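Sequence only, no structure available. Ideas?
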Amino acid sequence: MASVEVRPLGDGQTRVTHGRSGSSFETDSSPEWGGGGRSFSATDLVAAGLGACIGSSIATPLERRGVDLSGVRVSVDKTVGTDPKRIEHLAVTIEVPVAEDPSLERVLHKVSGLCPVGRSLDCTESVQVVFSG
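Reply:
I predicted one. Tokens follow.
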């Protein structure tokens, strides 16, 4: 089990430390919520976690097919609502610069859907994944 420690720093900022490695980073609330927008917000980290999870999930089948990963991109756009304050929508775009291959697209759809972050989100009915080439 992995652990993460979060320490409030004040002014909307926190320091997040990974228990196993000790690596850390700071977050900041977005200006809309009283922060300075100087770094990732908590909702940005949810979007980043989803993108990282899908990116690592699709890497293996792409590598097995000899696809150069340097051109592969996973982008996540999030929409945050105000009433209630929550992530309303996450739109994931996966860019894979290879010739159209329906079997590869089926595999990528399947593995991206198995991402545990996406499967853990309360708003999974509004997580949208789109492939682009």
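Strands lie at 4-10, 13-18, 24-28, 73-82, 85-95, 127-132.
Hope that gets you unstuck.
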